[in-house]
Specification:
The protein is α/β, with parallel strands linked by helices and about 170 residues long. The chain is built from 4 helices and 8 strands. It has a single domain, classed as Rossmann fold (3-Layer(aba) Sandwich). The strands form 2 sheets. The chain has a 5-stranded parallel beta sheet with strand order 3-2-4-5-6. The chain has a 3-stranded antiparallel beta sheet with strand order 1-8-7. About 35% of the residues are buried. The structure holds guanosine-5'-monophosphate and magnesium ion.
């Protein structure tokens, strides 16, 4: 069974609220860098950066991170660590953006990749959906919506840029 838990309006509202919270907690914005986790986190990161630019007039550096080869619980198909950040991050205030937070292993891997690439001053985490079930001491700083799930359930995040619509669904068993 599938249930729509966020429509386009709810999704855009949540992203706008997260944007305001990021601005509020990062007065000045000078050192802010937005990093989106591929695939859908990258689109959300781009949107947040665009909204910050519209609201504050500051164009922020935005980049993507692909951590598929960095996870500790998946076979490493690529012996070279491809998860490198392509922009300078030392001394920066990073906001990591992902669509769904679950066990926390993806974020742990992203933190590894970031630390391998430089020494940021601060890293915070923004997610559209927190579905619970953390296996590591990782918590988001900015959350669109908390959706308590069972392990068997899953969340489908759809974004206009690749899915031709904005919507979040819960696939129930
Ligand atoms: P974690 O590493 O925290 O277990 O899982 C988070 C990563 O896996 C995120 O990058 C997210 O895209 C993906 N993920 C985990 N659970 C779900 C889910 O229910 N729905 C979607 N769309 N992605 C998920
Ligand atoms: Mg993902």
């Amino acid at each position: 069974m599938t249930k729509v838990i966020m429509d386009a309006t709810a999704m855009q509202r949540a992203l706008t609220r997260i944007t305001y919270e990021i601005i509020e907690q990062n007065r000045g914005l000078e050192n802010l860098v937005i990093i989106g986790i591929e695939t859908r986190g990258a689109y959300l990161a781009k949107r947040i950066a665009q909204q910050i630019e519209q609201l504050e007039g500051s164009k922020l550096p935005v980049t993507n991170l692909d951590i598929t080869n960095y996870r500790d619980d998946r076979p490493n198909t690529d012996s070279t660590n491809s998860a490198r950040i392509k922009i300078p991050i030392t001394g920066k205030n990073i906001v990591l953006v992902d669509d769904v937070l679950y066990t926390g292993r993806t974020i742990r891997a992203a933190l590894d990749a970031i630390m391998d690439s430089g020494r940021p001053q601060k890293i915070s985490l923004a997610v559209l959906i927190d579905r619970g079930h953390r296996e590591l001491p990782i918590r988001p700083d900015f959350v669109g919506k908390n959706i308590p799930t069972s392990h068997e359930e899953s969340i489908k995040v759809m974004v206009n840029e690749v899915d031709q619509q904005d919507q979040v669904r819960l696939n129930q068993v």
